[in-house]
Please model this.
Amino acid sequence: MKKFIHPLILTLLFTGFTTLNAQNREVVITVDTLSNQVYMLTGQGGNIGIYVGEKQVFMIDDQFDRLSEKLMKTIATLTDKPISFLFNTHMHGDHSGGNAKFNGDKTTLVAHDNVRTRIATNMQKLLEEKKIDEAYYQLMLPEITFSDDLTLYEGKETIMTIHVHNAHTDGDAIIYFAANNVLHMGDTYFSGRYPYIDLNNGGSVDGLIEAQKKALLVINDDTKVIPGHGRPSNKKEMRLYLAMLEDLRTKVKAEIDAGKTLAEVKANSSLTRAYDATFGVGFIKPERMRETLYKSLSK
Model:
């Protein structure tokens, strides 16, 4: 007699298998050369920026702890200069998870004030649960923080670190290499896909739109743009992205003003239909995008 396996058990088994398989899948670090000195590294998590200066390296984000050695080996193929500064564009673990591995005598971590605060809060929980020790906790924390903007100079390069308020989170920074004309947007820009706006950590659709506007004032038609996720981009594509965000904000705000509920907005696929084929194929699906817009604009 055949034994019956409940569909829920099959689903749980399949989900567990696919999650484990994804974690164990070999991560390949790829390199895009954006200028003579700036590179974009893609692996698993947020895109990394590498600037090779005259005497030192400036690194932007570091993905996950488990990828640190692989990332170090990839960076070593580009330069043997030390990583002097490591910027966190925000607090999420797929952008800051490697802090402890990269932090050391030669490397200083830099981020917005709120990034240090939020990483400290998250790491404190792990410390209390004895999943990390005190040394690891300290190495995860940015050592230099700023409240608004920060400018660094290296040879002929000017590195502008610009805080954008309540966009993807409450601690986002975009980083512009002026001489190389390369801008790293962090997760304030998802190239070719709907954005993830972390409402629980200070993000908002209004702030995200303002971040695009601020970035567009800095760059020109020749600027290479490193998004938080997705392929390298440019000013033309960012303009289209801004137009999409503003249009969706207008449409969802009209629904809110008309008294529509969250459930009604989530179910109304016509609101995002014009953009779904282009932007709705990533991590954030159209229904979740409508939900995020509603919740953000209802605050």
In short: The chain has eleven helices and twelve strands. The first strand starts at residue 30 and ends at 33. The radius of gyration is 20 Å.
